[in-house]
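Annotated sample (chain length 134).
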Amino acid sequence: MPEEFLPREVRIRDKLPAGEIHVDPNRFVLYLTLPKRRAIRYTVGVGRGNLYHDGTFYVGAKREWPSWKPTPAMMKREPAAYKSFVPGGRYEKGMPGGPNNPLGARAIYLFDERGDSYLRPLHNIGIPPGWPFW
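Output written by the structure step:
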């Protein structure tokens, strides 16, 4: 993995409680906060703009080599792009985990207080084995 995408410890401006996750979707990074204004910065994929909203979420699931299926809204927006996911298509039950899967090797699913995870997976997370958080 290229050096710039590896997790690294960084200094943060705000004093935040240790153990929180903060995501900057415009920079494709996730921060796992540590004591003393430090954090571990991870590179992540967050999907297309205008599909996410600000809020407080919790990590409800972590998956290695997750399967994936586009949402009905995605299929409606771009039917030609997702034709293999329609009934009778190659991936009608979803694409299995693997190098061609858009979620990559790892995904973290964020849930709101109602337990809804709709459109909040963080994917392609560059977390090598043995690093904190995973």
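Annotation: The helical segments are 72-77.
Annotation: The chain is about 5% helix and 25% strand.
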